Amino acid sequence: QLQLVESGGGLVQPGGSLRLSCAASGFTLDHYPSMAWFRQAPGKEREGISCVTSMDGSTYYADSVKGRFTVSKDNAKNTGYLQMNTLQPEDTAVYYCAVGRQSYYCSNFVPYEYDIWGQGTQVTVSS
Description:
Layout: E1 3-7, E2 10-12, E3 18-25, E4 34-40, E5 47-53, E6 59-61, E7 69-74, E8 79-84, E9 93-99, E10 116-117, E11 121-125
Parallel strand pairs: 2-11
Antiparallel strand pairs: 1-3, 3-8, 4-5, 4-9, 5-6, 7-8, 9-10, 9-11
């Protein structure tokens, strides 16, 4: 079974940090062109926020998280990560990792290019 499992979400105060993990099972992350992170806040559309390519490790970020979030991938552990610093209330959302066979230009953050999604992990930023 091809599966992605996120972990690491939770409640954090504004200005705090969290590190999300995305563990793959049943397949190898590096066999997909990229791994991306999306998030969805209540009443809003799913937003692509970061991705990392398998070919050369290039990373891309949405303007909303640039300079605060860092995406990475550990091929030995078959796991991706999203380090989130200086979190703000507007970062509150369910966060998803995803991979897709067509995700060659991951910086476009096109959800339909991704065909394996994790179940999501809730991140709440509140005092």
